[in-house]
Every structure is written in structure tokens, then in C-alpha cells.
Design goal:
The structure holds two protein chains of two kinds.
Chain A (H helix, E strand, L loop, with lengths): L1 H8 L18 E3 L2 E3 L7 H14 L7 E6 L8 H10 L9 E7 L6 E7 L18 E3 L5 E3 L9 H5 L5 E3 L40 E3 L4 H4 L6 H5 L5 E5 L6 H8 L15 E4 L1
Parallel strand pairs in A: 3-11
Antiparallel strand pairs in A: 1-2, 3-10, 4-5, 6-7, 8-9
Chain B lengths: L15 H27 L14 H25 L6 H25 L8 H4 L6 H28 L4 H34 L12 H24 L6 H35 L2 H12 L3 H23 L4 H27 L24 H24 L9
Helix pairs in contact in B: 1-12, 2-3, 2-6, 2-7, 2-11, 3-5, 3-7, 3-12, 5-6, 6-7, 7-8, 7-11, 8-9, 9-10, 9-11, 10-11
Classes of the chains: A alpha+beta, B mainly alpha.
């Protein structure tokens, strides 16, 4: 577990060598209840195995997807914090947020928490509107932004029905404080590229940014930061093209739904009630 | 080519309105330099738009100025295509207005970009699935057409052209103007389409938007042109001048009423539909924190008062027409802001604003000093370019024979 914890902090230089994928990964999900196969300690490691299986496939055969169990979410926002730490996002950029809805009147009142990462839509409305073609859907179905091409017109931001895109203004958390904190100078690794020390004129400042499904971690066989961190094992991640993966089974057995289905954007993020 | 002499004295150099225009413009540009310097030094750090409302005052300024440009140009095109002799002398004024306001609009949107130095990518790597890419290309064509038309329209005064060449020029101008009409419709209708195609913004997603943008452009462009003709037009005091201004004022009024009709349609249809996700933006515009932008600036000062003024005046006093038209033209900025902001100020979920607290992720927006400063600077720049155009170009010289 120590190896695993170190890897979760991010920073590719700290990563140990990725584990070899086991020959066959089986998971047992009956009525949405997961039974751990022998030798696997918890769902996180199970999903990690599934990622490594998926990485063996050609990239166009993968479809990265996420499942969020809203029944288990307690609104602790650890996913939000971990995303911010993992991707080193500045003020104004919050790839992951958790919305809170309160329904009912005491004593029949309850809160529901809905996490909102980028939906990585299969019919993304943010893609056709880019005037310079700086954003597109990858072969593994993650919607990517090339920070070198993006001119920062922010048209894609207004086109996203989920509000999942953010603009990097080059703001700093330690503004108007005596000292710029060390963590603010850390580099980000969005989409697997080192974007270098922060500079107000250099990408990704002046670009649109969004949740990347932690592609830089996926490529190394690790789960996204939010999925790894969740204390309630609320988040699941895997290859939707694999009908035997945890995510695929959960979606079919627990009737995974998407947000704003009527828009037909076909998100890759599913919610379980 | 034109004989450009610095400090050239012409019939306007001592003209009071011109001096006034120049003075106001220089002050405005000076104020603007603060904003431009801030943008150059601090990038977007001193702006108030954020990730929830990513488009702010500068985008509104851009659609305002290019609207003025499209409107003035369309008017000039109609003048040249239908050979309306009476208006030929203002044809050049219209072209100059179109050029100057276009420059202002393009500067406004250029400073809004996250990476100004990458603007060239719009021309070299366009993605034509995006309406914005089309609009950029239409602007390119428009700039070339406008420049060419201005050159040909004005060269006959500086160069001694033969009868045949003048006749030829007429044909070219007419051809350019004819091409210009669908082009102007394409680019400003395109700007409307740029907003209209966005399904995620319920306040924008309407087939009416391209049309509404065009009519708004015609109203604001004709209003500003009428104002300029009334104040700076050649032959001031003459009956001919009065007649031109009178006709133009009727055009402005007619277009404005039509524009209000389209706006009423958008608002009432939405409100009566009573679907909360659609009525959100309209209610913000009518009853939100900035309700006065709609009711006081746009409706009262920008529409009803000028119309009342012009009707009462019966277009007899050119000065009153000028005031009314400038009121319409200036208040139109409120219309443009109301096109951009209310829809963006409506969150995608009611619970989204409470999900994450960040100064840059807020559904309240008021422009910063830097943003206002740049806007004022662009007005100033337009004024100065206008003055220089009037000074060095044969704008108000007599029309062809």
C-alpha cells in the first residue's frame, strides 16, 4: 500500500514501475454488489488491474468511463481536493466539483451529492465549436485539449452543457501574501505532457482546461486521482468497451444514468441511484 | 494615390464638432491606455469574467462594434446598389464608419483572447465545423472588400479619371456593393449564429438570433451613421442635408420598431413558455440585479425617448435627430451586454454555484476597471480614426456628377 500511496500524490518521477497485469481479471457483481475475487484486496486494486488489461488493447478499442454511486457519496469533497492536488490547478479551475442538493422538510430531509467531472461525451458539443480545432475526442474517447493550439477564445466553455470547462487566468492562491508557495510552482501533467513551470504568458495559462480523466495516470496503469482518493469507494473507473469490467456491470445491473440525457451528448460518466 | 499632407487644412479643421470629437477621443484613448497597458502586463489577471461567465464586456463590445460596422456597410451597399443619388454623398461616410467600427470590434475581441499571439491560427488552421471559423473568414473577405470599395469610391476625386473609367468604376462599385450585401449578412448573421447554435445556453439557442443580430446591427449602424451625417455631414444647414437626415431618421425609427418587435417575441415567447431553464436568462435580464440596463438604458433611453424625440421633432431640427440617434447608438451597448451575460449568468444546475467557492467561478459579473478602460479606449480609438479619415480621405467631397 505504501507504493500505492506515493503514486497517488502525483508527479510522474515518483511512480514505481507499473505492475504487470494479471492474466485474467474477474469480478463478481451480483445486483450491484461486488464480491472480491480471491487475491484481490479491494476494488481500487481490482480496477487498477482492469486498467492494465485495457492498456494492453489498442488505444482505439478502449473507452474510458466512470461510474459514480450517489448513494454512497457523503459530500466530503476529497475527490475535489485530490483532483486539485493531482493536477495542480490554479484558482478559477476546478475540474471536479461536488454539487449538493437538499430535498424534503425535516424530519424527512436528505442531501444528495452529485459529483461533476468532465463527462467525456461521445457527442461532445464543445468539440465542433472550437475555431482552431484545438479540442477533439481521442481514440480512447477522452476529450482532449491541445494547450499549444488553444487560443483561449472560450467558445467551448459556453458550449459545454455541464459547465465542465474552465479557463486558466494565471491567478495564484498566494496572491497578496508575503510569499508564493512552493506548491504553486509545481508543473502540471495534463494529457501526459509536462507543461513546465507556471508562467502567466505560457500555456496552460490562457487556455481552457478541464478534467482529463487523469490520462497521465491512466497511461501508467493508475486510476484517476478522484477514484483513488474516494473514502466511500463511491467512484468506479474502467473500460466501458469491456463488458466484464466493474463499470460495465454496474451500469447494467444498477441502471446507470447520465446527466442531461435529453441533450444526447452521451457522456462517459454514469450515475447510480 | 491620395495626397496625404500632415496637418492638412480642410473644411473641417476648425469645425467645432470635429474639434470636440477629437478632444473627447484623445481623452478616451488616454484612459484606454491604462487598460491596454494592464492587459499587456497582467494578461487577464485584472479582469472580472471567470470560468462560469467566460465572456464579458469585451465580447459584448466586439458584437456591438461589428454590429455598427455591418449596419453602416449594409446601408452603404443599399445606397450604391440601388443608386440612390440622394444618399450618395453619405455613402463614403458610411464606408468610413464601417471600417473604423470594424477595427474597434476586432481589437475588442483580440484582447479578449487567452493567447493574442495565436490569433493567426484562426486563419491558418480553421475548423469549419465551428461558426466562429466561418465568421473569421467572412471578416477577412469583408475587410478586403471594404478596403477595395473605399479605394475605388474615393479615387475618382484624387485622380483625374476619364469618363469611361468613371463609368467603369461605377460598375465595379456596384458589383462590390452587391457582393457586400450577402457578405455582411453572412458575417453579422454569422455572429448571431455563433451564439444561436450553442445548445447549452438556453438564452441564445434560437433560430431568431442571426436575424435579430442583423436587425440590431442595422439599427445601431444606421443610428450612428445618421448621427454622424447630422453632425459632420457636408452641406449642413442646406435643405438637401435636412432631407437626407430626415429620411435616415425614418429608416432608423422603422428599423428600431422592428428590432423591438423581434425582441418582444423572444422575451414573451420565453416567459409564456414558463420553462424555468429557459426563463432563467430572461428573468435575470428583466428582474435581476441589472434590470435597469434593460428597462432604463435600452427601453427608455435607447428606444422610447429617442423615438418620442424624433416624432415630436418631425425631423425638422437636425440637432435633435442627432441627439436621438446617438442615444440609440450608445444605448445599444446595453442590448449587446444583455445578449451575452444573462444566459451565461444562469447556472447549468441550481446547485452548481454552491459546489465550489472561487472568485473566478461565480455567476455574478461586473466588469473591472481594466475592462471598462479598454472599452473606453476603443471608443477613443474609433473617434480618432474617424477624425483622421474625415481629414485625409475625400469623404464628404461631392458625389459623382
Amino acid at each position: 500500500m505504501a507504493k500505492f500511496t506515493v503514486a497517488s500524490i502525483g508527479g510522474l518521477t515518483l511512480l514505481p514501475k507499473p505492475l504487470e497485469a494479471k492474466a485474467e481479471v474477474k469480478n463478481d457483481i451480483i445486483d450491484g454488489n461486488i464480491t472480491m475475487p480471491e487475491g484481490v484486496e479491494n476494488t481500487i486494486l481490482l480496477m487498477q488491474e482492469e486498467i492494465r488489461q485495457a492498456l494492453k488493447k489498442p488505444v482505439e478499442e478502449r473507452h474510458w468511463g466512470m461510474v459514480i454511486d450517489t448513494r454512497k457519496c457523503i459530500g466530503c469533497d476529497a475527490c475535489t481536493v485530490s483532483c486539485k492536488a493531482e493536477n495542480n490547478t490554479p484558482p478559477g479551475v476546478a475540474y471536479n466539483v461536488v454539487m449538493e442538493e437538499e430535498t424534503g422538510v425535516f424530519p424527512n430531509v436528505r442531501k444528495k451529492f452529485i459529483r461533476r467531472p468532465c463527462m467525456q461525451c461521445q457527442e461532445p458539443p464543445c468539440v465542433p465549436v472550437c475555431p482552431v480545432g484545438a479540442t477533439w475526442k481521442r481514440e480512447d474517447k477522452i476529450v482532449t485539449i491541445d494547450y499549444d493550439q488553444c487560443i483561449g477564445c472560450r467558445y467551448c466553455m459556453v458550449a459545454c452543457p455541464y459547465g465542465a470547462r474552465y479557463f486558466d487566468y494565471g491567478d495564484s492562491y498566494s496572491e497578496a501574501t508575503p510569499e508564493k508557495m512552493e506548491y504553486e510552482n509545481r508543473e502540471s501533467y495534463d494529457y501526459g505532457k509536462n507543461w513546465g513551470k507556471k508562467d502567466k504568458w505560457r500555456s496552460p495559462v490562457g487556455n481552457v482546461r478541464k478534467c482529463t480523466f487523469c490520462l497521465h495516470r491512466l497511461e501508467k496503469g493508475l486510476l484517476p486521482g478522484c477514484v483513488t482518493t474516494c473514502i466511500g469507494a463511491t467512484n468506479y473507473f474502467g473500460d466501458l468497451n469491456n463488458e466484464n469490467s466493474i463499470v460495465s456491470k454496474l451500469i447494467t445491473q444498477r441502471q446507470g444514468k447520465v446527466l442531461k440525457e435529453e441533450m444526447g451528448t452521451e457522456p462517459s460518466v454514469f450515475y447510480l441511484d | 494615390m491620395f495626397h496625404v499632407k500632415f496637418f492638412k487644412k480642410n473644411e473641417f479643421s476648425d469645425h467645432k464638432p470635429y474639434k470636440r470629437l477629437m478632444q473627447i477621443s484623445i481623452v478616451a484613448l488616454a484612459i484606454g491606455m491604462i487598460g491596454f497597458a494592464d492587459r499587456a502586463i497582467f494578461s487577464h489577471q485584472h479582469t472580472n469574467y471567470g470560468s462560469a461567465i467566460p465572456w464579458g464586456l469585451w465580447v459584448a463590445a466586439y458584437i456591438y462594434f461589428v454590429g455598427l460596422s455591418a449596419g453602416s456597410f449594409l446601408l452603404s451597399a443599399l445606397i450604391y446598389v440601388f443608386n440612390i443619388k440622394k444618399f450618395e454623398r453619405i455613402g463614403r461616410l458610411a464606408l468610413l464608419t464601417a471600417l473604423v467600427t470594424l477595427i474597434g470590434g476586432l481589437i475588442a475581441i483580440w484582447v479578449d483572447l487567452g493567447h493574442m499571439s495565436r490569433a493567426w491560427r484562426l486563419l491558418i488552421f480553421p475548423n469549419f465545423q465551428s461558426v466562429m471559423a466561418w465568421v473569421v473568414y467572412f471578416y477577412g473577405a469583408y475587410v478586403i472588400l471594404l478596403g477595395t470599395e473605399m479605394y475605388i469610391v474615393m479615387r475618382r476625386d484624387e485622380q483625374k479619371l476619364s469618363e469611361k473609367k468613371t463609368e467603369n468604376d461605377h460598375k465595379i462599385i456596384k458589383a462590390l456593393a452587391i457582393t457586400g450585401i450577402p457578405l455582411a449578412i453572412a458575417f453579422h448573421g454569422g455572429v448571431g449564429a455563433l451564439f444561436g447554435v450553442v445548445g447549452a445556453q438556453s438564452g441564445w439557442h434560437s433560430g431568431l438570433y442571426p436575424i435579430y443580430f442583423l436587425i440590431s446591427a442595422l439599427v445601431s449602424g444606421t443610428a450612428v451613421l445618421t448621427g454622424f451625417v447630422a453632425v459632420f455631414g457636408a452641406g449642413k444647414g442646406s435643405d438637401e442635408h435636412k432631407s437626407i437626415v430626415k429620411t435616415l431618421s425614418y429608416v432608423v425609427m422603422g428599423l428600431l420598431v422592428f428590432d423591438l418587435l423581434l425582441e418582444a417575441s423572444e422575451i414573451l415567447i420565453t416567459l409564456y413558455g414558463a420553462i424555468p431553464s429557459h426563463t432563467g436568462p430572461v428573468k435575470i435580464m428583466l428582474f435581476g440585479n441589472f434590470w435597469w440596463m434593460f428597462w432604463v438604458v435600452h427601453l427608455l433611453l435607447g428606444s422610447l425617448a429617442p423615438i418620442a424625440l424624433m416624432i415630436k421633432n418631425r425631423a425638422s431640427d437636425v440637432k435633435i435627430t442627432a441627439i436621438a440617434c446617438f442615444m440609440i447608438a450608445l444605448a445599444f451597448m446595453a442590448v449587446r451586454v444583455n445578449l451575452v451575460i444573462p444566459s451565461l449568468a444562469t447556472p447549468h444546475w441550481k446547485s452548481l454555484p454552491g459546489a465550489f467557492y472561487d472568485q473566478r467561478i461565480t455567476w455574478d459579473y461586473f466588469p473591472s476597471m481594466a475592462e471598462f478602460s479598454v472599452l473606453i479606449g476603443i471608443f477613443g480609438l474609433c473617434g480618432i480614426l474617424y477624425y483622421l479619415g474625415m481629414l485625409y480621405l475625400p469623404i464628404t467631397k461631392g458625389a459623382s456628377k
